[in-house]
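so i finally got all the pieces together for this one. its two components total, 682 residues if u count the protein bits. some of the lines might not be protein, just check the labels. i wanna see the whole assembly predicted at once instead of chain by chain like last time, that was a mess tbh
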Amino acid sequence: MDSRITEKLSILADAAKYDVSCSSSGGKRKNENKGLGNAEGMGICHSYTEDGRCVSLLKILLTNFCIYDCAYCVTRKSNDIKRTAFTVQEVVDLTINFYRRNYIEGLFLSSGIFKNSDYTMERLVRIAKKLRQEHKFNGYIHLKTIPGASEELIQEAGLYADRLSVNIELPSEQSLQQLAPEKNYTEILQPMGAISNQLILAKEEQKLFKSAPAFAPAGQSTQLIVGASAEKDYQILQLSNQLYKGYSLKRVYYSGYVPVSADNRLPIITEPPIIRENRIYQADWLMRFYGFKYNEIADEQHPDLDLEIDPKLSWALRNRHFFPVEINTADYEMILRVPGIGVKSAKKIVSARKFAPLQFDHLRQMGVVLKRAKYFITCQTKSLQRQDYDSELLRRKILFGEGSVRSALLTQQLDLFRQAG
Amino acid sequence: MYLYTYDGSFEGLLTVVFEAFERKAWPTAIEQEHQAQPLLIGETIAVTTDEQKAGRVWRGLQQRLSEEATQSLFHTYLWEHTGFEMLFFEYVRLVFVSAGNVEGNYTASCVLQVQQISKQVHREKHRMEAFVRFQKTADGLFYATVSPDFNVLPLIIRHFEKRYADQRWAIYDTKRHYGALYDLNATSLVSLEASALPPKQQGILAPDTLDEEEKRYQQLWQVYFDHVNIPERKNPKLHLRHIPKRYWKYLSEKQPRFLSN
């Protein structure tokens, strides 16, 4: 067995794993050339790591040589680690052979910066081009754009990639200056803006000419590191909101900072802030699928998300005047805002109530989870619970009441929190 | 009391529906011929599959239901659990006796059940699309075995045809003893005795029938799987929720390590 490839793969997969995006959905590349692969529609997770994350793509760095010295990054110049690099052909062979065996949906390629930005970016583009043109590969390709790469190269990347991403990493300019002195916001936002413009342009051209080339049909995404710097959740959500609105991003990913360095610019933590990361994802979902504005979820008065309860419940407890909601008559939008009721349940409720007035038994049969919802809804004016509890009591009932099971991890992290506070 | 028996095919089940409506004799049970126990009281009606009759029922359903709902009915057939025939019949009867569309009527228990079954079958289909692992044989065939909880092989063929248009592949269901074989032009359903598929032993092919590079890529995949993990975030509960243990048999990354890395 070729031990060199094995070693490279170990090092360069290890270095890429802190990038949390693994989405392979939203592509529109059909297999029309009797080639290899198909990337239309839904993404597929082919496996899951022991930390519970989806493995959908071959996620690797082209190299972990890097001229930058970002404090939060494993690959930073000053870190004493083994360095290596794949050749273009090695990445192509791995991708094709993994794909043919149904291990992966495609490739997620990023890189440390060696020599300079354009030199690195040019190699990433060459790999994507080779896969598309020489191997008729229609699987998913996600390319990371290298900060400072020229617009022409990014444009070319978009012709072969399904998704492009530019990682912001730190949620404010100030933190960026402190932890990644070689980077700046302008350098990050400029390519993001350029990609966003290209996406709009390509869509318009495709309306006119069906044969116009597609540009990154699955859009662009970014990642923010949570817990390596001092920003409040409120600032993070505000930034995400701007990114979704201003740069029409498909996704903002949040990565709880994993201590990879003893750099004295960084906070000393013993384990990644997993609960906080989870709450921010829940808030992100509320913005994208539940019609919440970012400042309804967190604001200057409530700058951090409640770690003990989910952000929707937290909002409901601050806004009791909207409740109880009558399941048989309320708007879909309002049913979506009931704690514990998700998009699927809300849709089922709205569909079923056209046929018969709904009772609590109907909701249970449909699989609507009532543990939290029962405090906020009525069915034909009947209620399962007294509605006159004050918010503090309600919160305690939901958290500690009968049948409330708390994950060991949550209990553990909250305990640590109490000790620290 | 009417017991209908049929040959176990989907067309057969649709023919049962046709016959029951024709006779206005509603079934108390529907069973496959080889499993049916004769009734002590009541009448047994042995239905012979008739493609025309089946076709009329199916087109009737297609006119009254969305594609999603007819698909859910087909899923109910593939679900295979005891009593699926009667559930199928109840749903179809509700469709034909109701004036409007019954699809979203989750207050009717057969509609809700069919919807829930369809979700289960769909999830199993998706899992097969995700967890199937092909091994390349010396003659260039990509071969995989499955043993899904429900009979989802017919549902996943299209997915693999689109994905692997340029390679010959086969997926064999070891529980139901049939498989799909794609030869670069079309897919045919085969049973093992009559086909060119290599013999299977729990899905492991004899080493000498494998392509010389096969082992190497399985090893590389294991290496990748181990190094993409973040030990600081270990979460066994979440891991198991995503890949329950009964699926591990398919996954090369869950097999003993070829080498320590």
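DSSP finds eight helices and eight strands in chain B.
Helices of chain B lie at 10-23, 51-64, 67-79, 84-97, 109-131, 153-163, 214-227, 236-242.
anyway lmk what u think
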